[in-house]
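Reading a protein record of the kind used here takes only a little practice. The integers have meaning only within a learned vocabulary of local backbone shapes. With that in mind, consider the following protein and its fold in token form:
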Amino acid sequence: LIIGISRIYLGVHYPTDVAAGIIVGIGSAVVSHAFLLDFIEKIMEIMI
């Protein structure tokens, strides 16, 4: 978040660029987390 603010302050990115990056980052983290939980659950079933 601080880096995004600094990029806007320095004028190298627009606020919409930073907002889009935050949205994409959060979205990819949520999707990755969901897949990882499912993967771990399947591995645990195999081990039991």
